[in-house]
């Protein structure tokens, strides 16, 4: 008999999830601030997708180590911090033309998370497991916080009169920034300290699911390595999105879409890691984890972005228009009502998933054809 040759597993340094973030960072360094022809833009886009997939992998490793809801919090905050850096960078380089970029990106993030990620997660979970269950207390608290943040930061500027146009006066902007930080901090303390059990995955009978796919958690060293690679991957994702932004703006203009649609594309790119991670959790019957990602990302997107942008206005020359238009206010209101009706029962079917995906499709369509 021919002796069997056992293949040794690849060292961690040679796996694609380790190599791709490093490669993406190298591509970012080589392409930053340069004009890219069409072929190179396509190659950068391929590397960008690879970095997104690697980020999802490392986020899952960290989440498995620290458990819920800390894992969802790590990914949401990490992505949002780098998203803020991207928005500020584009606003500094764009001048008055980017006065609505923060509003467009943050509102797009809210609609994508509260309709896209939420709807897709419910639909995927319901298609595989029938009726899916989650904790209505924790999810309801998250939805209430997201709604309050959105109204304070995006709706009120449309109706205030201290400054002309849909914008805050400096004092109003400072108040909104402080209120956003307080609300976000209060929610994080509730989620991770006082009522952590409200945000743990639940079974159909209401019991808490504690067996994470019967797999042993990774070692502390592996989790720290994945945390570092997650940061590298997210930096590369947002940096490459910035590199691709001229191509995105040119494509939006060539298609005849409004310039505000650039914010939608940026939000879609930045939220891609969370979307994939939430979909995978839903298919594993961990819908609560998906909801933690959806509402946590929306909350972080507002609660961290608005204070950072408020601080950045110290050296930004152009105006900062945060107030939503009438169509956007209506979409936000319908989204909140639909989300409340979805959350209150603590259970959902594929119908609720389709409803939220229809709202996302309406948002995208109206962003293209206002």
From TrEMBL:
Q: What Pfam families does UniProt report for this protein, alphabetically?
A: Na_Ca_ex
Q: Which residues form the Sodium/calcium exchanger membrane region domain?
A: 38-192, 226-367
Annotated membrane topology: Multi-pass membrane protein
Q: What is this protein called?
A: Ionic transporter y4hA
Alphabetized GO MF terms: potassium:proton antiporter activity; sodium:proton antiporter activity
Q: Which organism is it from?
A: Modestobacter muralis
- Is Membrane one of the keywords? yes
State which residue ranges cross the membrane. Answer: 12-32, 38-58, 70-94, 106-127, 139-159, 171-190, 222-241, 247-272, 293-316, 322-344, 351-368
User: Which GO terms of the cellular component aspect does the record hold?
Assistant: plasma membrane
Keyword tags: Membrane, Transmembrane, Transmembrane helix
- Domain of life of the source: Bacteria
Compartment annotation: Membrane
**InterPro entries in the record, alphabetically?**
Alkaline_pH_Ca-Antiporter, NaCa_Exmemb
């Amino acid at each position: 008999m021919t002796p069997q040759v056992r293949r040794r597993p690849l060292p961690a340094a040679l796996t694609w999830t380790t190599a791709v973030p490093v490669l993406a960072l190298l591509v970012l360094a080589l392409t930053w601030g340069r004009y890219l022809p069409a072929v190179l833009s396509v190659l950068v886009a391929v590397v960008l997708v690879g970095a997104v997939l690697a980020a999802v992998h490392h986020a899952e490793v960290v989440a498995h180590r620290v458990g819920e809801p800390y894992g969802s919090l790590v990914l949401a905050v990490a992505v949002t911090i780098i998203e803020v850096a991207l928005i500020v960078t584009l606003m500094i380089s764009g001048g008055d033309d980017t006065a609505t970029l923060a509003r467009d990106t943050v509102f797009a993030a809210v609609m994508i998370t509260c309709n896209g990620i939420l709807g897709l997660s419910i639909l995927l979970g319901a298609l595989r497991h029938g009726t899916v269950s989650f904790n209505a207390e924790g999810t309801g608290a998250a939805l209430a916080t997201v709604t309050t943040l959105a109204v304070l930061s995006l709706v009120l500027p449309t109706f205030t009169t201290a400054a002309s146009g849909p914008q805050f006066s400096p004092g109003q902007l400072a108040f909104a920034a402080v209120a956003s930080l307080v609300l976000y901090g209060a929610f994080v303390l509730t989620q991770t300290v006082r009522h952590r059990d409200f945000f743990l995955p639940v079974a159909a009978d209401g019991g808490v699911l504690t067996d994470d796919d019967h797999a042993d958690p990774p070692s502390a060293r592996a989790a720290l390595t994945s945390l570092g690679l997650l940061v590298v991957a997210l930096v590369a994702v947002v940096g490459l999105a910035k590199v691709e932004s001229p191509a995105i703006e040119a494509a939006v203009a060539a298609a005849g879409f409004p310039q505000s649609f650039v914010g939608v594309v940026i939000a879609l790119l930045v939220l891609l890691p969370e979307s994939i991670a939430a979909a995978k959790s839903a298919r594993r019957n961990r819908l609560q984890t998906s909801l933690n990602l959806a509402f946590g990302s929306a909350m972080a997107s507002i609660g961290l972005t608005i204070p950072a942008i408020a601080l950045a206005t110290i050296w930004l020359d152009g105006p900062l228009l945060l107030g939503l238009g009438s169509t956007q206010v209506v979409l936000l209101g319908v989204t909140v009502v639909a989300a409340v009706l979805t959350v209150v029962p603590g259970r959902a079917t594929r119908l609720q998933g389709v409803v939220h995906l229809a709202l996302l499709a309406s948002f995208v369509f109206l962003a293209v054809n206002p």
